[in-house]
Design brief:
By secondary structure, the protein is α/β, with parallel strands linked by helices. It contains 5 helices and 7 strands; from the N terminus they run H-H-E-E-E-E-H-H-E-E-H-E. The two termini are about 30 Å apart. About 25% of the residues are buried.
Length: about 180
């Protein structure tokens, strides 16, 4: 069995598993409960320190969203892609796309706002409900060891640093 064949087989298995989990959410919850990579019990709840109308918000998605002119996420690696794509706040919605094979994003392909509510957040900023919109970030949600360590130790902390530098007060996380 060649490495190329093995990678293609694993990729297809993961894609099919993702499709099954999207159709049977209870199965996904059971699988997720048995596959704990992090213990979130030590993560404290952090309430907002100012009104939402004064907050700077960023969007972060694990749905594989990125600008069309950016490199797509690597779908050939069966363990996923731990990189991220910075999406400037001014990016028009039509310049975004999704590269992710492990879930059915056909509805999001028709209306990206159901996955990555950029237009809605801009509307809320315009109405004064949210203070401002910062640059946002797209990740690929299917990440397994050994890339999980890269995500936890490198890419997630890099994005956290950018969010702090951009004075982001709140983040809206959207899964794929």
């Amino acid at each position: 069995m060649t490495d190329d064949w093995r990678k293609r087989s694993l990729k297809e298995l993961y894609r099919l598993t993702g499709q099954i989990f999207s159709q049977i959410p209870e199965l996904a919850r059971l699988w997720g409960g048995a596959y704990r990579a992090l213990n979130f019990a030590d993560v404290p709840f952090t309430p907002l320190r100012k009104p939402l109308s004064a907050c700077r918000l960023a969007l972060i998605t694990t749905g594989g969203v990125h600008r069309r002119d950016q490199e797509p996420f690597d779908m050939s690696d069966p363990h996923g892609d731990a990189t991220y794509r910075r999406i400037p706040a001014s990016t028009p919605l039509h310049e975004l796309t999704i590269t992710h094979d492990y879930y059915d994003h056909s509805d999001a392909d028709r209306d990206l706002n159901i996955l990555f509510p950029l237009e809605l957040v801009r509307y809320l900023v315009g109405r004064g409900i949210i203070g401002s919109l910062a640059d946002s970030y797209g990740f690929m949600g299917h990440i397994e060891p050994p890339h999980l360590n890269t995500l936890i130790q490198q890419t997630a902390p890099e994005v956290a640093t950018f969010l702090k530098q951009d004075q982001v007060d709140a983040v809206l996380l959207t899964p794929g």
